[in-house]
Design a protein that fits this description.
Helices cover 12% and strands 38% of the residues. The chain has 582 residues and is mainly β.
């Protein structure tokens, strides 16, 4: 066997050097090199794009890979019976053929093999193959591992990949060969926000001088998008510069000041753009862009030392040779003083809820069917009572939930001092609508002062507005969307449904502790793996709980279910790291 492969390598090398050809016809294939399958690859006339259900696809991508232990790979692209030599490729090399882009990626293994990224009109794939027959195929962030028997033709035939209609056939696997065909349908292109490029406003960049980043973005939505957030951060750090923009359709240039680069050297950074945290993206990383800025000058540092205090709850800067730090979030350590400031309109329609429990099962009932022992409450009374229930948690569960999670993760010095006040009555209803409006924060902060409270006495203030949108037919607009101002420790919450009130406050409070939303690319989904509590579960779905910063239980790759109570809510590893609890 070893002698046979040596002959193959020698013949291939002589053929390529002497003839200097890139494309081989079937009759020109070197000696001992396998011939293509009977059905030609990439035959567009024979493909209808209907997937495994009918046996036809938009694209066939067939690659013959010769594997080496040094990480390099000789690759042929087999296209309509022609063997297109792509080269003797190493990590970082990239080759394009039509709408297909092939990139060799790093892999850490002493065994001969290759890891290939395939970008095309189909979904993007990463395919890793080893000389021992181990294959790993990654699509949409999910990796599928399988083993191919060695030295058997078509040992794996039309293996369905995940929940897609795409399939892979492995024609041959051996210690030195990985030969496969990926049959796939064109990906459905969703509306998207995409970063096309990044540049600096200054050249050269001098340590200590302000830097503005110009980001070229593409909005493929047919309409303008308000509230588009651009965020730039040093890779590996949580502190970031961010700003919100109104983005018209098509290409735009967004400028974002990022402060200064304090010292000479290279700074690896990442720009991220998002709209309402629920953008459906054609490719997972379309809205991310990594780049490097290099600062140069006569002095090593503008300040006498590096200003990074390694505190993820502050931003660090160097101003006039002095390091300065600004709080970006509340660090969840020690005793946190929390005020819940409640407000309701004078004509608030407060509906009574009746819940009856039998043998541990509780459900809402009609008043005519209520027993004397049934629980009667309103949205305000349930929120303010100290004895809470699973079906109607109270504000006091904020303290209990967070302190229990802290203890479970070894944080024993964390306590919440909780104070509830109100509800205070206002004459005019709030009607700011769903989009973020700075008027919400101004209204509540002014009212807090008018009622005689000193904001400096509290680390966090939860402003709660009880509304009857969805209950009162005369209430035609939602008061506002709940959100958090993490740097100032304020959350603004509009409530009408008892079971959602406390969950919403706990989620928004997570933002003040430096937590990020973990919503996925599809509406209602969670980001994988950061937004699910059991990323190593086999099978992955259904999950048993919901991550706090997503709030829903993933039952499949594309579906979720609501939580039944706060016991279904937990802190995932990503959020624990953002809190500094892991």
């Amino acid at each position: 066997m070893k002698k046979s492969w040596l002959v193959v390598l020698v013949v291939i090398s002589l053929f390529l050097v002497s003839c200097n050809l890139e494309v081989l016809n079937a009759a020109e294939i070197p000696e001992d090199l396998p011939t293509p399958p009977v059905s030609p690859a990439d035959s567009q006339q024979a493909l209808a794009g209907e997937g495994i259900s009918t046996g036809t696809w938009d694209n066939d991508i067939q690659l013959y890979n010769m594997l080496y232990s040094n990480g390099r790979t000789i690759i042929y692209y087999v296209n309509n019976g022609r063997w297109d030599y792509l080269g003797y490729l190493t990590a970082g090399d990239q080759v394009k053929r039509g709408d297909i882009t092939l990139t060799i990626m790093n892999r850490n293994s002493p065994v001969a093999g290759s890891r290939i990224k395939l970008e095309s009109s189909c979904a993007n794939y990463e395919i890793e193959m080893g000389g021992s027959g181990n294959y790993a195929v990654k699509r949409d962030g999910v990796t599928e591992d399988f083993v191919v028997p060695l030295n058997r033709y078509n040992a794996v035939s039309n293996r369905v990949l995940g929940s897609s209609e795409d399939v892979i056939t492995v024609h041959s696997a051996s210690s030195g060969v990985g030969w496969f065909t990926l049959r796939c349908d064109e990906a459905v292109v969703a509306d998207n926000l995409k970063i096309l490029g990044v540049s600096s406003s200054a050249s050269p960049i001098i340590p200590g001088q302000p830097v503005t980043v110009n980001v070229r973005v593409l909005n493929t939505f047919s309409t303008a998008k308000a509230g588009v957030k651009l965020r730039i951060q040093l890779v590996g750090q949580f502190a970031a510069s961010e700003q919100t923009y109104n983005l018209p359709p098509g290409e735009s240039i967004l400028s974002l000041p990022i402060g200064i680069l304090p010292c000479k050297g290279s700074y690896d950074q990442r720009a991220t753009i998002d709209y309402d945290d629920i953008v459906q993206e054609r490719v997972d990383n379309d809205n991310e862009f990594d780049f490097t800025f290099t600062a140069s000058g006569s002095s090593e540092c503008y300040c006498n030392n590096d200003c990074d205090d390694e505190n993820q709850f502050t931003t660090d800067s160097c101003v006039n040779s002095v390091c300065q730090y600004s709080q970006t979030a509340i660090e969840p350590r020690g005793t946190i003083n929390v005020l819940v400031f409640q407000v309701k309109p004078d004509d608030f329609l407060e509906r009574e809820e009746i819940v009856c429990c039998t043998a541990g099962t509780c459900s809402a009932v009609d008043p005519a069917l209520a027993r004397p022992d049934c629980d009667r409450f309103t949205v305000i009374s349930a929120f303010n009572r100290q004895q809470s229930t699973n079906y109607a948690p109270s504000a006091y569960d904020i303290k209990t939930w967070y302190e229990n999670k802290a203890r479970a993760n070894g944080i024993n010095n964390f306590n919440i001092n909780l104070q509830l006040v109100g509800p205070y009555i206002i004459n005019n209803r709030l009607a700011y609508g769903f989009n973020p409006d700075p008027g919400v924060a101004t209204f509540f902060r002014n009212m807090l002062t008018q009622q005689g409270y000193n904001r400096n006495d509290y680390d966090i203030v939860h402003y709660v507005y009880f509304e009857d949108f969805g209950i009162n037919p005369s209430t035609l607009i939602q008061a506002f969307r709940s959100y958090a101002d993490r740097a100032n420790g304020d959350t603004f919450n509009a409530f009408s449904i008892p079971v959602e009130n406390t969950q919403t406050i706990i989620h928004e409070m997570g933002h003040t502790f430096n937590g990020d939303d973990l919503y996925g690319s599809g509406f209602g989904n969670c980001r994988i793996p950061d937004g699910i509590p059991e990323p190593n579960r086999q099978p992955l779905f259904p999950q048993s709980q919901a991550c706090l910063m997503c709030g829903a239980i993933m039952t499949s790759q594309t579906s979720t279910q609501n939580i039944n109570g706060l016991n279904d809510l937990t802190l995932c590893d990503y959020t624990l790291r953002k809190f500094g609890w892991q």
